[in-house]
Prior knowledge:
Structural class: alpha/beta
Strand order of the largest sheet: 3-2-1-4-5-6-7-8
Number of strands: 8
Order of helices and strands: EHEHEHEHEHEEHEHHHHHH
Strand content: 5-15%
Radius of gyration: 21 Å
Number of domains: 2
CATH architecture of the largest domain: 3-Layer(aba) Sandwich
CATH superfamily of the largest domain: NAD(P)-binding Rossmann-like Domain
Amino acid sequence: MKIGFIGTGNMGSAIIRAYSTVSEKDGAEILAYNRTRAKAESLAESCDISIANGIEDITKSSDILFVCVEPRNFAEVMPEVASFFTKDKILVSIAAGITIETLESYLGPDAKVIRVMPNTPIMHGLGVTAMVRNSNVNDEDFDTVKKVFESGGITGEVSEDLISAVIGVSGSSPAYTYMYIDALIQAGIESGLDPEMSRQFAAQAVMGAARMVMASDDPPSVLCDRVCTPGGTTIEAVTSLREAGFEDIVKSGAEAAVKRSMEMSKK
């Protein structure tokens, strides 16, 4: 089996890095193409991949073809892909706002299409990927693609109308989580901590809190209450954040991502 990737930017390379070691066990060959060849060559230095010569080459050679370009570039890339795409292949798109209907308009109604929404922590085995398939994709094909993403985290199948919600909750949220961690780091530095120690402590604390949420049957609000001692330091911080509208601000950010995704889908 040959798995091709058009685009080796942040997300494309993250998926490749996650799957490259697993693919050796599965016997799959990974092909990659990037219009800036140096990017693909740089990735090949650390991952076991072959570099394709162009879109025609990688489309013809791949059994599963990942299109990992920005949404604005689909109108340029997809007509060329469609020229060499056959119905026995599977196309996987990671682009926000590019619907299955749009992909079928390029490839035809018989094409096997899977739309996914991953996030960049997949390269460290901590990714989240939502998946949607059209009616041409059977369970065997779907599970083959699913294995690629399971190599780097958790996956879940959703209906396409929920993809925008996924973008707000997990697809885009690493960015606003980085903002939160950075704010903690700066607070630590301003209070006298060594910058590297502040960075390590803040990041580890956030990772630990996330693990607590994953391991517990209780909602995060209950976990929060458990660490708030009356008159203590944590309740003082939580009260200050709530008075500043912290939770509403985070929800507002996620909702903005959802809204933008919906706008892009309509366009």
